[in-house]
Amino acid sequence: MTTPITKAATTSASSDEEARKPGVASNAEMLNFLEQNQDLSKIVIVDARNPDFSVEPSDELYGSINGKFPIADCGTEKRPNAINVPFDRTKKALSGSNVDILQTFEKDRAIITHCGGGGRGQKSKEWLEKEGFTNVVNGGGPQVSELWDMFGHL
Q1: Who's near 9: CB < 8 A, 6+ residues apart?
Q2: Is 84 helix (H, G, I), strand (E, B) or coil?
Q3: SMART domains from the entry (predicted)?
């Protein structure tokens, strides 16, 4: 499957790319990750947003049922590769009912983490790497529209 952003589009950093949170992939890094993991059906998307908006109020903007990218779309035909595994800031770990699913994956499984803009996506990436996963990239999230255009449909 071809991604919407071409190599030519990634040769210079955009102002959006410069404003990304630390650890969020550049356009070129994400394109390279997707090219190295060409079987897109095998990429797992870890949506670290919290569906309990009283815990993470900012997740409601994009993640509510009325938002542009609902958390409830995880695991549906809209986002078949996505699983919602919220990052718990208190525990400093991925948590929730789907966290055990992660342990069923091989450690070199391609994983893209994301939240709304990349902060918890980065913390999720670091947590997964501590758990032994070796093929993880932080995709930022819906606020990082250039990256979201590349993987948000998975």
Answers
A1: 27
A2: strand
A3: RHOD
Number of folded domains that form the chain: 1
Q: Which domain holds residue 124?
A: 20-151
In this structure, what CATH number is given to the domain that contains residue 107?
Answer: 3.40.250.10
Q: Is the pLDDT of residue 118 over 60?
A: yes
The closest of 141, 127, 149, 138 to 50, measured between CA atoms, is: 141
Q: In this structure, is residue 133 part of a structural domain?
A: yes
Cα 127 to Cα 31, 119, 123, 136: the distances in Å are: 23, 13, 6, 10
Q: How far is CA 27 from CA 11, 86, 146, in A?
A: 9, 24, 7
CA distance 120 to 153: 20
Confidence (pTM)? 0.89
3-state DSSP assignment of residue 71: helix
Distance CA 151, CA 114 (A): 10
User: What's the pLDDT score for residue 105?
Assistant: 96
Q: In this predicted model, which residue has the larger pLDDT, 54 or 13? A: 54
Residue 139: what pLDDT?
A: 97
Angle at the Cα of 54 from the Cα atoms of 50 and 57, rounded to 5 degrees: 70
- Cβ atoms of 152 and 79 closer than 8 Å: yes
